Structure formats: C-alpha cells, structure tokens
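Hi Q.,

Before the meeting this afternoon, I wanted you to have the KG4 prediction in hand. No need to reply - just skim if you have a minute. The sequence and ligand are here:
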Amino acid sequence: MSEIILGIESSCDDTSAAVIRDGVLLSNVIASQSVHENYGGVVPELASRAHQQNIVPVVSEAIRLAGIDKNDISAIAFTRGPGLLGSLLVGTSFAKGLSIALRAPLIDVNHLHGHVLSHFIKEKPEDETPSFPFICLLISGGNSQIVLVKSPFEMEILGQTIDDAAGEAFDKCAKVMGLPYPGGPHIDRLAAEGDPSAFKFSKPNIPGLDYSFSGLKTSFLYTLRDNLKKDPEFIEKNRADLAASLQKTIIDILLSKLEKAVSQHPVKELAIGGGVSANSGVRKAIEEFCRDKGIRAWIPPRKFTTDNAAMVAIAGMFAYRDGQRASLDLPPYARVTI
Ligand code: KG4
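Predicted structure with the ligand bound:
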C-alpha cells in the first residue's frame, strides 16, 4: 500500500495543493492571486476570498494530475501558520472537512519548516536530498533567518532579522523606484544589466548572527531623495545601477552573517529557501560561498522557492512517518517561529 500525502497551502496569496506518493512528487498546483497587483501589496480580505474560490478547484486538480483516487490518501497536511489568519482559516477548514470526509488523518505543518524541508521534495525517486545537520538560510518576504537543521523536527534559529526581512528590503526599495509589487523579481532582472559598485548603501553593524535591513532601506531612500533634487530623472537614468547596487548590498549582508554562522557551527551542507532564494545574484553568491568553503550547496529549483504545497506535503510526510497527528480542534496561528 502506497503512502500518499496531500499537502494544502494557503498562508498568503497563493492557493496550492500537492500530492506526494512514497516520497515522490506527483502534482503541485498553484493558483496565484493577481487581484493584489493594483494595491502594491497583499490585501488580506481579498486573499481570503480568493482562497475560498480557488481551494476546491486547486485540490481537485492536484488529485486529478496525480492520477490517484482521493480515497487512497494516507494523510492530509495543511499549513497551520505563520501567515494571514483569514487565508490560513480557508486551508485549515478545508483540510479538516476533507479529513472527516475521507477518514484520513490530519497533519499540521509550520510553513517555515516547509521552506526548509523543500530540499527533500523528490521529482524522481533517484533525486538526492540533504543530510542532517545542515544550515539553511531562509529568506522570504516575512523572514530572514539562519537555521541549524538537526532533523525534520529539530530546527534551531541561529540568527534572524530584528526589523525588515530581506524580501521587504527588495520590495520596499523597488516600490520607491516605481516598480510593481512584489519588486524582488524586477530588481533581479534590472540588476543583471547594472553596475553593482555604482552606489554605496549602508550596511548594519549588529552583533551576533542577527540581521537588520531597515538601515539599508533608509540609506536607499536618502540616496534617491538627494539625487532627485538635482535630477528629477535620476531614477529612470540609473534604474539598473540602483538595482544592482541594492542587490549586491543585500547579498553582502546575508553572506557576512552566514560566514560567521558556518565558522561557529561547522556543517558540510548549506541550503537556501524562501522567495528571495529565487534571486539570481543570491543563488550565484551562495554557490561561490559554498565552493570556497568546501560545503555542499542546496539551491532549490525556482518553483519551490515561493509558497507551494509540495513543501507542505514533504514536511507532512516526515511528520506522518513520525506518527504525528493533528486534532480537528486545532486553530491556525498567524505568528510563530520555527
Ligand atoms: O517566500 P515568499 O514567496 O513569501 C513570503 O514570505 O511572503 O517570498 C516572497 C518574497 C517577496 O519579497 C519577493 O519580492 C521575493 O520573495 N522574491 C525575490 C525574487 N523572487 C521573489 N526577491 C529577489 N529576487 C527574486 N528573483
């Protein structure tokens, strides 16, 4: 009898469902919500309503593409948090209803564990996966953390941001440059044509392994303000150089703490995860960093960097094999760390 895990993700603005059979991904359906584009950020109430509309077709499609019978599902894993409460409620309630209907056990998944464990998603049975312990740099729109991953359930935060996340630095600076939301991918694209040493932005001086990105944001704003006074077309003329210099500064900040982390906690493997790990400059810098240090680098395929249910299903698979089950009265939670 196969072990079939259905994963459901609805923490922010992507409704997603995935099916994993015996550790191998059979389907991963994601419905992204374009409704937020006009607002420069995710509008929670609109996100909840879109999840409500998407959840049934998305789950049905994931089951259809996987070619399984829904009655053969061994367990249903859902994102319990962190995220937007209204959005989480849709996935959580749907997972509970389906669990009752199919008499399949429920498993709650911490979204952040999902990002870390996304490296264990196998698209083919022979795909390799990391060995524990490893360090994971988790960089998304809401988090910037260095995590020591000892097992699928034992994760220690070595350092994290004390203010903005790396993704927020990308998005907020992109916004003042007049780029659409989310700005990270636009900065990535522009940076490829710019000079990363054209502008200097301030870097934080925080002790230990914690990050800070709000000073960089302020310094970026001041650069724009001062130069716009002299030349109203400053942004248009310098788009690529601004993007490249911003991206380079974010990468330098990320790597400086990672350098400290691997010297304090020597590991043989290092992974990255979360939306910002899709960034071309970050991916290249991490590969070089690991090559220099003789550490194996795990760079996720881009489709597994942003929110997806495959990572929820894989985290659910580990929990299922460990005998963990969630009760039907478990509420979602908006805030939680690893
Ligand atoms: O993990 P994620 O999908 O969800 C949240 O935490 O919300 O991360 C979203 C973040 C956004 O800040 C977005 O701008 C950033 O990931 N991002 C990128 C790139 N692709 C997504 N940042 C820089 N370069 C990219 N290519």
